Amino acid sequence: MACELMKAAGVAHASVDNITRQMLDWEKGLHFPRDWTDAYAIAFDTTPAELFGDAPPMWASSLHEPLAEIEDDVKRRALLGILATAAATVPLGYEGERQRAALNSAFGAAPTERDADTWERVAYDYAHEVGTIRTPAQVVLPELLTDLGELSMLIPQATGPARHRLIHSAAELAALTAIAFTQIEDFRSARRWWRSAARAADESGDHLLSARVRGKQAVFSLYEADRPELSSLGTAEEAIAIGRGVPCGGIASAYAAKAQALAQLGRHTEAVGAVEKLRKVFDKLPDETRDDTASQWGWYEHRLHFVVSHVYTLGGDVSRANAAQDAAEALRPGRISLGRAQVELHRAGCMLRTGDIDEGARHTVRVLERLPAEFASDGLVRRTAVTSLGLAPPDATNRPSVREARELLALTSGER
Questions:
Q1: What does each C-alpha distance from 253 to 138, 256, 290, 318, 355 come to in angstroms?
Q2: Rounded distance between C-alpha atoms, residue 257 and residue 75, angstroms
Q3: How far apart are CA 211 and CA 240, in angstroms?
Q4: pTM for the complete prediction?
Q5: Please, is 35 exposed, middle or buried when counting C-beta atoms within 10 Å of its C-beta (0-12, 13-18, 19+)?
Q6: Is a pLDDT exceeding 80 seen at residue 120?
Q7: Can you list the alpha helix ranges (DSSP code H) found in 316-399?
Q8: 3-state DSSP call for residue 76?
Q9: Residue 238 φ/ψ region, left for φ over 0, alpha for ψ in the -120 to 50 degree band, beta for the rest
Q10: Distance separating the N- and C-terminal Cα atoms of the chain
């Protein structure tokens, strides 16, 4: 955002760090961005009055108080990214959506099976966008929320099979929205969308969809900041019960979540037991589920190796962890993806755990720098990197290589 302000103001040589510090003060309300209002308006393609209203500006303050937690800064940057994406289409995009909503409301007919077909295709497309290296969460979230708003107006008008199918699509879209919010580390919003997804899935009458939503929730809740393992375990058990023993992606996700949650709790023997149950479910999955390597709903072999890698990395069994990492690499040699990056961060954690501190930290840096810039701060990748760096011995915290990795992640030096 600082770079965008500099470009809008025509300033080529200002210090990005200085502007960033000023932005933090503006966002905390310590003073008004008096000298940068026009630049903000240009960056967001609007007017100063639209952004700031008519409130009198406050004099600038030279004080800068660092944030207590880097989490707030990460969330703020993600939110600014969403706003910037939305602003790129304002006012034309907003006006167009307003007019389209008005047009849709003018149609008196109830939604039909053709409408249900359309929304199933919409949900299918989003399942191939969310969580991929092609589409950052900051880009896809505004689109998801817009489409969910439209779908929410159709469902009350629908009846019969069309209504159930629309609700089914709504459950999938709500779950994908929760995943995207997790990626930008807005966990409270993610929890609310998981609740909506679960309720819609239950109302759809499809128990496998209900299991899938809860299984995914159990997995993604592991990336929350405040010890989410017990909550994840409870959701995983719920998914397993709802699945009724049918081998499906939902139950596979549930056992994957159980294994990783138990590993994070240090209950390694139980975690390995959950991995073995996951293997048995995986072997019985329908071919279409195991062959689906492109969407959120597939449960393919790379995901199995990911879970095994994570569990054995945390358990300190470096040999088995490395074997899983190598197997994952063999499936996608040289391919850049978020899941691939996370497995390589597990590898860095193994190095750190076995005392190869500098190479482990350098490998963390290489993995992050290889990602496109907009994904380096992805919540799933960031949490995995934090966990891996936390495997370094306590006395390695201040080593230059570890500090470099933490600085790349925008972490405080004490976060472990």
A1: 25, 5, 12, 24, 32
A2: 25
A3: 7
A4: 0.74
A5: exposed
A6: yes
A7: 318-331, 338-353, 357-370, 379-389
A8: helix
A9: alpha
A10: 28
Locus of tokens 């008004």: 32
Q: Is the Cβ–Cβ distance between 146 and 93 less than 8 Å?
A: no
CA distances from 211 to 87, 119, 132 (A): 37, 21, 22
Instruction: Label residues 362-394 b or e (16+ Cβ within 10 Å = b).
Output: bbbbebbeebeeebbbbbbbbbbbbbbbebbee
DSSP state of 78: H
CATH class of 300-416: mainly alpha
Locate 260 and state its tokens: 């990783």
CATH 1.25.40 range(s) for the chain read 300-416
In 10 A of CB 13, how many CB atoms? 5
- SS3 call for 196: helix
Residue-wise pLDDT for 292-319, tens only, equals 999 999 999 999 999 999 999 999 999 9
**How far is the C-alpha of 259 from the C-alpha of 305, rounded, in Å?**
12
The whole-number average pLDDT for the span 206-227 is 93
DSSP 21-41: HHHHHHHTTSS--GGGHHHHH
Residue 29 near residue 60 (C-beta atoms within 8 A): no
Check: CB of residue 159 under 8 Å from CB of residue 209. Answer: no
Beta strands in 106-245 (DSSP E): none
